[in-house]
Structures are given as C-alpha cells and as structure tokens.
Design a protein that fits this description.
heterodimer, A: 216 residues, alpha+beta, six-stranded antiparallel beta sheet, 2 helices, 13 strands, B: 219 residues, five-stranded antiparallel beta sheet, 5 helices, 37% helix, elongated
Chain lengths: 216, 219
C-alpha cells in the first residue's frame, strides 16, 4: 500500500522537462537578437559620426530634383566664396550680376547675365581689388562666366556688409530667384562714421532666376 | 506544448534574421559613406560631449594646416593669432549647440609679406606680417623652422579649462646666429622672444589662466 502511494507522489514531484530542440532554439533566438542589438548600437554610432562628417564636408544633396539645391563650400582661403548649386530641369535659368543700387533685399537690373544649364555645378564669386580698379568675376565650373571691372572710386574701400546667404545644403523653390551673394559697401557719413547706407548702395549681388520669355 | 514553443521560437528567429539582414544592408551603406568621408576629413569619435576633441587632417602641403574640431555646447571661445611682436588679432564666438567644424590655417608668402589665412566655421581673417627684413629671412628658412602642430600624433581630447595651441612656429636654436646676422637687433630679439606665428583657441577662463602663467614665466 505504502509503495503504491509513494509512486504517485513521485509522479507528481517529477520536474518538467524541456526538449533539447527547444533549448537550442532559445539559444539561437538569443544569439540573433543580441546581434541585432549590437548592430543597432553600431548604426547609432555611425549615424552620429556621419552627421559630423556631413556637416564639415558640405556636399550637395538633391532630395527633390524639381527644386534648386545649394551649399556653400568651406573656404580654403580668406575671401573665397564657392558654392555647389543644382539647377532643376524644365525651365531656362540665367545667372545675374549687379554692382549698383543694391538694397537689403530684392533685385535690380543686372549689369551682366549668362545662361546657366540644368544640373550640378560650381559657382565661385571672386572680388579682386587692385590699386586703381576692382574686378568682380563669377566663375562657373572654374571658368569665367561674367566679369566686370570698375574704377577704384566705385567702392569707398572702408568696409562692407553681407556675403552669401547660402550655407548648409538646402533646397529652394524653383520659381523664386535664388540669391547666391549679396554684399553692400559701407560709406562714411556726415559725422565721419562708417555705416551701410539705408536703401540702394553699391555692392555685389549675384542671383539665379528664370529667364524671362521676352527681353525687356 | 513543445511543438508550439518550438514553432514560436522558429518564428522569432526568422523575424530576427530578416531584421538582421536589413540592418546589415543599412550599416553597409553607412559604412561606405563613412569610409569615403573619413578618408578626407578624419575620424572624430566624440565619447565625451563636454570636452574638446581635435584631429588633424593631412593636406600634403607644409604650409596648409587643417583640423577637425568638436566644440561642446554652451561655451564661449576666444580666438587668438599673432605673428611675433606684430600684435595679436582674434575674435570670439559662442557655441550654443555642440558642433564640429573644420579649422584651417594657410600660410603664404607674397613679395613683401607673410600672410596667414585663418578659416573656421565662424568666419575667417587674414593676418599679415610685413617686416621686410625678417620676412626675407623667414621665407628663406621656412622649412628649417620648428612647428608644433596640435594633434600631429593623433586625436587629442581637452578639458574646457585648457587652451588649444593649434599651431606654433618657432625659431630653432641653430638658426639664431644667422638671424642675428640677417636682421636688426630689435627684430631678432622679437623673433627669439615670441613665437614666429601662433594660433590659440580657448574659453575666456582658460585664457586667463594661460596669460597669468605666461606673465609669471616672463618674470
């Protein structure tokens, strides 16, 4: 009688058994998901480093091919102003240069203009001052697209305000003029103080705009 | 029961494998981008966001010095450059958010001067040294001068109470005799006493300590 009773208790006390296949699958699942966790850490680390690298590399990135894209390259010499610009297809554009009557915003009749093709290109604005004259050049892919020379008295040579509004890579509406450079020269006022004039002033303004359908 | 458990585990493994493959594709693309950009701009792995981190980038031009710099958030930075005794120039900027930027010093000779193009994310400046006698001497012996270039041996980390001496150009002892023969006594003394060129960056507090130590050493 007692032997029969102890056998029943033994059956009740038997520990649940796990199949070997289950154990192996659990180990495999843990290995796979631990690997995923490590990959995620690596991904986050790379993302963080890439953010820093992209901020210093200043590469042109075109996400929407129907819009302008522009980025200003980090200068390698003082005064250097080089931009990488993407011009969208589907319309004719021109690059314009003005040297007079430049206000804080808006545009004026350009003194020089040149067609600009669609696609990616490099635009450099160079301003060279010699003792008797000043020369402004706009270079496209390293070649002079526009050049204007003015006598020394064109610029008071006491300072200026403004430069390129283009900085980190950004996209712009294709129907709006894209300002690449706006600089206005300072003058000495009646109290012999330097300031940038309120209203139109001499300077350098470079922008890209859709070509008008007929010449004015 | 075992069969149900095994089926669930197999499902978990399969989902994991698919996720793992997609992750590897993304990481592969990122790693290629990273290798491409790091080849030009160096590796700057910011582990401590509260310290400066500087890595030097090779330019193959002995007169062109380039660094990639990490600046922590919420600090003011003073900039200070000088050519010997021709006066110090500089500026300042305030870093609201942590950022990385390139810092570049490019030295060139003109007919009558030595010029340093100082360029960083906050702008740029052009510093000139126009003392004809010493300019000719320095042009002739530029390759013989001593250059202390920050992070030349590898990426360096700095506390925010330290001044970062990016570049210091000094006259070696073996050129002193020739310097004395080539230029006036006054110019020779200034080139011996001060670095020929120096570029420093740091917080105002770091510069206070730096300047105090410099005054104490001078005494």
């Amino acid at each position: 009688m007692s032997h029969f009773g102890s056998e029943t208790k033994t059956q009740r006390r038997r520990k649940p058994q796990v199949a070997l296949s289950t154990i192996l699958l659990v180990v495999a699942a843990c290995a796979v998901w631990f690997s995923i966790y490590r990959n995620d850490q690596r991904f986050q680390s790379l993302s963080s480093q890439l953010r820093g690298l992209k901020a210093v590399s200043r590469e042109l990135t075109v996400l929407d091919p129907n819009q302008f894209a522009a980025v200003k390259k980090i200068p390698t010499r003082f005064g250097e102003c080089i931009m990488e610009v993407y011009v969208p297809r589907g319309a004719q554009y021109e690059i314009c240069l003005a040297l007079d009557d430049i206000d804080e915003s808006g545009f004026v009749q350009p003194v020089s203009r040149a067609p600009i093709s669609a696609g990616e290109q490099s635009i450099e604005i160079r301003y060279e001052k010699e003792p008797d004259e000043s020369t402004v050049m706009v270079l496209r892919n390293g070649e002079v697209a526009m050049q204007q020379t003015r006598a020394k008295n064109w610029e008071p040579r006491v300072g200026s305000s403004g430069s390129s509004p283009i900085d980190a890579c950004k996209q712009y509406h294709p129907d709006e003029p894209l300002t690449l450079f706006r600089k206005r020269f300072m003058v000495t006022n009646a109290k012999r103080r330097l300031n940038v004039p309120k209203g139109p002033a001499k300077g350098i303004l470079v922008w890209i705009v859709k070509q008008s359908s007929s010449d004015d | 029961m075992t069969r149900i458990l095994n089926t669930l585990l197999i499902l978990v493994i399969v989902i994991g494998m698919v996720t793992w493959v997609r992750q590897r594709q993304s990481i592969g693309h990122q790693e290629r981008e990273y290798q491409r950009l790091a080849a030009n701009y160096g590796v700057l792995d910011v582990q401590d966001s509260k310290k400066f981190l500087v890595t030097r980038i090779d330019t193959d031009d002995p007169m062109h010095f380039l660094w990639r710099v990490y600046y922590p958030a919420k600090i003011s930075i003073l900039e200070r450059e000088s050519f010997a005794d021709s006066g110090k120039s500089g500026g300042s900027f305030t870093n609201i958010a942590a950022r990385e930027q390139l810092f570049r010093i490019r030295i060139e000779f003109t007919d009558t001067a030595i010029r340093a193009h100082i360029l960083d994310g906050s702008g740029g400046s052009l510093l000139s040294y126009n003392r004809a006698q010493s300019t000719d001497f320095l042009k002739a012996h530029w390759q013989d001068l001593e250059f202390d270039v920050l992070a030349a041996d590898g990426t360096r980390k700095f506390d925010t109470d330290e001044v970062l001496p990016f570049l210091r150009v000094r006259l070696p002892d073996d050129l002193i005799e020739e310097l004395d023969r080539s230029v006036s006594t006054k110019i020779a003394e200034s080139l011996k006493r001060e670095p020929i060129f120096e570029s420093l960056r740091g917080t105002p507090e770091a510069f206070e300590q730096w300047d105090r130590l410099a005054r104490e050493n001078a005494l």
